[in-house]
Amino acid sequence: MSIDRSRLRDLLASERAEYARRNPRSRELYDAGEHLFGRVPMTWMNKAAGGFPLGLDRADGARVWDLDGHEYIDFCLGDTGAMAGHSPAPVVAAVAKRFGELGGATAMMPTQDAEWVAAELSSRFGVDRWSFSLTATDANRWVLRLVRAITGRPKILFHSYCYHGSVDESLIVCDDSFDGADRPGNVGAPVEVTRTSRVAEFNDLEGLEKQLAQGDVAAMMMEPALTNIGLILPEPGYLDGVRELTERYGVLLVNDETHTFSAGVGGATRAWGLKPDIVTIGKAIGGGIPIGAYGISSALAESLLARSDLDLIDMGGVGGTLAGNALSLAAARATLSEVLTADAFSRMTALASSFTRGVQDTIDRTGVPWSIAQLGARAEYRFASPAPRNGSESVDAYDADLEDFLHVFLANRGVLMTPFHNMALMCPVTTEADVARHTELFAEAVDLLVGPAS
Ligand code: PMP
């Protein structure tokens, strides 16, 4: 069953017209943003299927309200930053206490929460020396410096079309050459990316080995499942093969769990029994307050701390003034102890399974050539079947009009998906009724796309 493109264009145009009609205050906010670069506080917010972004009024749990008073079931959840739900009560209380009552968010002094959070992350992810940043991007950047310092090798290996934040080294993709190339659109790259990086496709052990065998790779940084180019799951044996090859070639393995944290309390690392040397994470663990973190093995930590040639204390390139601040850590302690618990993950995962079944039923009934994948609390559909196996295949399945149509159709009826994905994330207070509403609307949208049965 293929999609009739002119029907799709008509449907998208009429949904966009309805979006413009429904959202005059959001439009006004956008038009008033004359001193903002791109009319938004951050240029990514221009990724708006309706033509302009919805302005935020307030948010609570699994709900957001826009400036025109519409209520939404939020499956975007800040693209994982709000996986704990918006402003969960234990985090609000911890933040109010730390910032309001006790003060000192930027005092540059350690608090008792830091060791608690580090110990919790150690027991969840299996690596035992932790340090904090304000974003996952920075955790990744600092780790890349550390792995080069440890190994004395210059390059980092990434998967093609991975995303690890705005990290210079990671903006590399496979092309016809052995070395790969800059990711299209790479803004002002400091040096040609092939000087700092190597690249292999996800699920391709043979290609990976050829790259690692060059002997210049300090570390492989990966998500155990790709989550930023659709959701691409590892094939059986792939992750074992990655660990075996990285060990064989003396390459450190870094798991970026920022999104794959959806797999459970200890992310995919714990859910799948993985043994990385280093884990990085961010977003969700702060319950909405900025934080990032990286954990390294005690052996690596000790060897770094023993090095007199590395400036880990001042201007050596690792760290930040507000990193590890008291407020972030108070929020993370509340989030990990009271919100993103094992119980919450089992409920969230059950909801994502219902979501997946609902979408799959419509795919099966209508015969559209799409697929859906699930990783714990998140699920994502892709306009390809069978599901893409790697980043390049997934890029080929991208369909801007189709994605925009589904996003605007859902938004016009009170459901938000993640702007950069067809991704839905469950939080601890998402309900079965929320999922059922998506299932119903998704079926309605696909029925409109395929038209009446002939
Ligand atoms: N790692 C992964 C896997 C991500 O998906 C992202 C952001 N989407 C990041 C790191 C960077 O997170 P942030 O933008 O909060 O720094």
- Tell me the name of the CATH homologous superfamily of the largest domain: Type I PLP-dependent aspartate aminotransferase-like (Major domain)
Rg of Cα set:
22 Å
Report the CATH topology name of the largest domain: Aspartate Aminotransferase, domain 2
CATH architectural category of the largest domain? 3-Layer(aba) Sandwich
Query: What ligand molecules are bound, each kind once?
Result: 4'-deoxy-4'-aminopyridoxal-5'-phosphate
Quick check: average pLDDT? Answer: 97
* Number of domain units: 2
Q: Strand sequence of the main sheet, in spatial order? A: 4-12-11-10-9-5-8
Multimeric status of the protein: single chain
Structural class: alpha/beta
> How many strand elements?
16
Low-pLDDT windows of residues:
none
CATH class annotation of the largest domain: Alpha Beta
Report helical residue fraction.
Answer: 25-40%
Tell me, what's the shape?
A: globular
Major pleated sheet: 7 strands, mixed
Structure description:
There is one protein chain. With 454 residues, the protein is of the alpha/beta class. The protein has 2 domains: 5-83 and 342-450, Aspartate Aminotransferase, domain 1; 89-339, Aspartate Aminotransferase, domain 2 (3-Layer(aba) Sandwich), CATH 3.40.640. The protein is built from 14 helices and 16 strands. It has a 7-stranded mixed beta sheet, with helices on both faces. Strand 13 (371-375) and strand 14 form a beta hairpin. The longest helix is centred in the last third of the chain and has 25 residues, at 342-366. It is globular and about 70 Å long. The termini are close together. The mean pLDDT is 97. The protein binds 4'-deoxy-4'-aminopyridoxal-5'-phosphate (PMP).
